Amino acid sequence: MKDILNNIIRSRRSVFPVQYNGDVIDDNIVNEILYNANTAPTHRITQPWLFKVFDKNSKFKLAEEILKLKFGNKVPEKAKSNLLNKFILSSHIICICMDRNTENLIPEWEEIAAVSMSVQNMWLTCTANEVGCYWSSPAIISSLNNFLELKSNQRCLGLFYMGKYDELPQNNLKKKSIKEKVIWI
């Protein structure tokens, strides 16, 4: 079991929408991903994550809103084509939101960290299920709050693209040795 967990953690990576094959992820897997997201640790049990899931036709409404926010009424055809292609290849796009405790029980950075841990659980579950995923945080995410019907204590932190792939892309990223990042005292 330990080796399986280590393999999942070590093989977790960004798989971008252009690497997806357009196939739809089974709803049971999406529900498992979201269930595991909900098991993340959270200080004072604030559970600040909130997810808005877009699939099928709803993801194209999200694409239209992103294009409108980014370009207004003059959307360059190439930008429109590129974004629509990402949305076509993606099975689901989840807006990662923070639902901050209105009593401000803990610092905001801890709430953001809890949401991030929740997304890490999503990422690891995607990896275990051979689903590609990628957390994008475009400049317009804060402008999505109205479209997403978020309350004043909520905000969008990014888009989580998910899709199936035919072959896992090679990871050529060279990480620094952990020995360079740890100081024993």
Topology, please?
Layout: H1 2-11, H2 27-37, E1 49-55, H3 58-71, H4 77-89, E2 92-99, H5 108-128, E3 132-136, E4 154-163
Antiparallel strand pairs: 1-2, 2-4, 3-4
Helix pairs in contact: 2-5, 3-4
Fold and architecture overview:
The protein has helices spanning 2-11, 27-37, 58-71, 77-89, 108-128; strands at residues 49-55, 92-99, 132-136, 154-163. It has a four-stranded antiparallel β-sheet. The protein has five helices and four strands, in the order ααβααβαββ. The protein has one domain (2-166): NADH Oxidase (3-Layer(aba) Sandwich). The two termini are 31 Å apart. The mean pLDDT is 94. The protein is of the alpha+beta class and 185 residues long. The protein is globular. α2 packs antiparallel against α5 and α3 (58-71) runs antiparallel to α4 (77-89).
Q: Keywords, please?
A:
four-stranded antiparallel sheet, 5 helices, globular, alpha+beta, 185 residues, NADH Oxidase
The average pLDDT value, as a whole number, equals 94
- What is the CATH architecture assignment? 3-Layer(aba) Sandwich
Radius of gyration, in Å, reads: 18 Å
Intertermini distance? 31 Å
The helix-and-strand class reads alpha+beta
Give the class-level CATH name.
Answer: Alpha Beta
Strand count: 4
The number of helical segments is: 5
> What is the spatial order of strands in the main beta sheet?
1-2-4-3
- Residue share in helix: 25-40%
Spatial shape: globular
Largest sheet: 4 strands, antiparallel
Count the domains. Answer: 1
- Roughly what fraction of the amino acids lie in strands? 15-25%
Strand-and-helix sequence, N→C? HHEHHEHEE
